Structures are given as structure tokens and as C-alpha cells.
Amino acid sequence: MMKTLQQVETIGELRRELKAARIQGKRIGFVPTMGYLHEGHLSLVEQAKQTCDLIVMSIFVNPLQFGPNEDFERYPRDLERDSRMAATAGVDLLFTPSVEEMYPTAVKTNITVSGVSEPLCGRSRPGHFDGVATVVMKLFQIVQPDFAFFGQKDAQQVAVIEQMVRDLSVPVEIIPCPIVRESDGLAMSSRNVYLAPEERKQATVLHRSLRRAKELLGDGKLPAEIRAEMVQMIQQEPLADIDYIEILTYPDLTPLDSVSSGQKLVIALAVRFGRTRLIDNLITTL
Ligand SMILES: Nc1ncnc2c1ncn2[C@@H]1O[C@H](COP(=O)(O)OP(=O)(O)OP(=O)(O)O)[C@@H](O)[C@H]1O
Ligand SMILES: CC(C)(CO)[C@@H](O)C(=O)[O-]
Ligand code: BAL
User: Which residues form the active site (predicted)?
Assistant: First the structure.
């Protein structure tokens, strides 16, 4: 039988609900999102259900993590649909605060996780990971979950949050979850709805180039050679505009000139199709 989903919009109400659950000794799992749910988000809920007694999902499009020329205003939103999907997936509490509820006054406290926040998306989206770390820390303070579930599609985000949790001794266990893909390999993302049909077709090159990169790694090619072949492959798609392609250590995200056995690394890329910026990555250990 489907559980009843309770939707709450205020921090006070959520805290009251969670206090009762905690007294009953329930293990609380948390899935933070920006909504416009898809199978990727639902896989996090599925994973949470394996270890937790009560699942909290947040839907909050966080203005702090968007740059001035980014898509905060037009980010896709459909709370009714999300609420139905969350209920079917087994979410117990859906937290949907307004911007005013989360930030009633101008935010003067920022969390900066240096190092891991700097390359990749940190370079392309200045301030983005400060916004992410700050809102995630705030959400952790509100929910106080035992476990929090994040998708590896945002591999750098996982590295940033893990570093923050270690540095600040936040009492939560971060559970990274695998990337969920469409049948043609495109990583699921709320932003995929922005893609025009021809852009959508060409966007499969992200995953194709990652698969090729993995083959080349297996053949013992150097990171620079692999990167060059990925650039060439992606440039064959006329609508693709490369933001970055990098091969770095994971989770430290430091440069990697050569690869040695046992090394964990990430091949990460961001590519624009028109105004839509897509990311994808592959994490592997040699
Ligand atoms: N395809 C996916 N597979 C696994 N997890 C995912 C996938 N897409 C998103 N997630 C995870 O869901 C959580 C919420 O992400 P978010 O709401 O930003 O979704 P999104 O689809 O990544 O949106 P965006 O278009 O902003 O990238 C994050 O932890 C994110 O990594
Ligand atoms: C973690 C997060 C919900 C913080 O706003 C967001 O960055 C996301 O959806 O990945
Ligand atoms: N999933 C990452 C959130 C963002 O792009 O702002």
C-alpha cells in the first residue's frame, strides 16, 4: 500500500514532525533536490528506503547557487507532479519551502569548501559551490538526517559535501548513488527538457565520449591523449559547445598527468547545447 506523503512548507513544522520520528528511534534519510523529478531522483529515494525508516525529500530551487546569468528563473518547476511522484516513490515528508522561508533576511553566512570546489563546475560557475554548501548545511541543520543521498551525476558536488561534512563534523553519513541514464545513455537531468529535438539527439555524445575514454584508459593512453580524442568526438556534433573536459583524481580533484594502478579518477565534462549546459562524468579505479 502507498504511504501517505505529508508536504510541509515551514522549517518549524518540519522540525516538529521530525522530532516525533526521532523520539520513536526512526532512522531518517534525506534526499535534497531542486525538483522537476525524474528517475534519477527516485533512485535516491529507492536507495534511502534500503536503510532508513523515514524519508525526507526537499524541493528547493536555491537562488544562492545560481549565477546572475544562469537559469534560476526558468528552472523547470511542477510541484503537483513532483508531489505525486514523491508519494508513489515512498517519500514520507516533502519539504517545499519558499525562498522567503529559507532566507527571510539577506544571507551573511557562507560556507566555502576550498580546493575541491575550485576546478570543473567551480571554475565555470563562480560561487556555485558556496551556494550549494551553504544550502545543504542549512538543510542538514533543519532535517538532521542520519543519512543523506546524493547522485554521482554531480560528482564534484558529492566531493564538496563529503569534504564539508568531514571538516565540520556534521553527524550525517553521505551516500553517493550511481548515475541513472536514459536508454540512449544520456544522464537524466531536469535540464534535459530544455533541449530541442536535434540538441537532444546530439547530447548522447557526452556518454559516448565517456565510454570511449574508458576504453582508452584501459589501453593505457595518457590523460592528455584521452582528452584530445574526447574533444574531437564532441566537436563532431555541430550543436555541442565544450565548457570543460577534465581527467582528475577523485575525490580530491587534483590534476593527473599520468595514471597508475589503484588510482581513482573522474573523467568529467560540461557541454553546452544552445543555452542548456549539461554535465556528465565517469568515476573509475585503475
Ligand atoms: N541522472 C541522475 N542519476 C542519479 N542521481 C541524479 C541524477 N540526476 C540528478 N541526480 C541527483 O539528484 C539530486 C538532486 O539533483 P537536481 O534536483 O539538481 O537534479 P538534476 O536533474 O541534476 O537537475 P539539473 O538539471 O539541475 O542538473 C542530486 O543529488 C543529483 O546528483
Ligand atoms: C543539493 C542541491 C539540492 C542543493 O541545492 C542541488 O545542488 C542539487 O539538486 O543537486
Ligand atoms: N544538480 C546541480 C544543481 C545545479 O545545477 O545548480
Answer: 41
